[in-house]
Amino acid sequence: MTASPAAEPARMRRSAGDRRAQLVRIGLELLPTTPVQELTIDEVARRAGISRSLLFHYFPSKRDYYTAVTRAAADLLWDHLIPAPGTAPEQQISGMLDRYVGWVETYRESHLAFVRGAAGGDPWVSEIYEETRGRLVEVALSALDLPDDARRRQLVLAWFAFTEDLVGHWVQEPTMSRAELLALLRDVLARLTAP
């Protein structure tokens, strides 16, 4: 008589929140090489070890999934850019710019898809994009010790648009050193916000 093989331990079931977090994390892992709108649900489900239909149990549509990944990416960008508490005001903008350039170097295609998706009027991208930029404008105004009025908000938003475009192109084709790029961006901001 042979002993029966030991029963395999039952698979631990994940809570709905844990599974959603896992699926978003997989989307974030794919972002360095794949813009969010190009993530395939089949690949995400495969990496999670679940069926495609089960993914739609946690996210009712592709758009819901893409929105969750986009919001998570925007939150990561925010966490990455925000100055550490206690950072001297004169170093806050320089540090944010340096970290932003590094972010675009790492996630260029995904970042451009995010910026273009917002510019293209895709409402779910635009909402997250505008919210993120609004928060960054507040940080910039605070770091520069400027009043938060409509005029300065417009100027700093315009500077962010200029920065996004220039950094996106520079990462693809560097026409100046990184130090020169950062100095130019700081100079443009100082000129725009001068009294």
UniProtKB/TrEMBL annotation:
Coiled-coil segments on the chain, per record: none
This protein's UniProt keywords: DNA-binding, Transcription, Transcription regulation
Occurrences of domain HTH tetR-type (ranges): 17-77
Residue range(s) of DNA binding per entry: 40-59
Protein name: TetR/AcrR family transcriptional regulator
Native source organism of the sequence: Blastococcus deserti
Lineage of source species: Bacteria, Bacillati, Actinomycetota, Actinomycetes, Geodermatophilales
